[in-house]
Amino acid sequence: MSIQEDRAFEVFTILIITILVIILTIFSSGMVKFFSSMKYAPPLTLEKCPFFLWTYRGLDTLAQGFLLLATVLGVAALLREDEGPGVEEEPVIEEEKEG
Length: 99
Fold this sequence. Notes:
Helices cover 63% and strands 0% of the residues.
């Protein structure tokens, strides 16, 4: 990037940040009222709602599938060959078919 492009990007970034700060100051009084009006609600526990585990099995199955996928991707990432300065790539040479 040239110096002019860098300068234009910096000016654009400063302009966006300034606009965001102005918007936040405009809406801050409403946000303070909103957050101060919120009341604490104790979370549901298994003692209060023991049926949760039996009625939301789809959520449990989805979470288990995600964990299994994350495990497979983690193991695949650990077992892949590193690419770096010491690794040499070997080209594949295909044999020509006569026919």
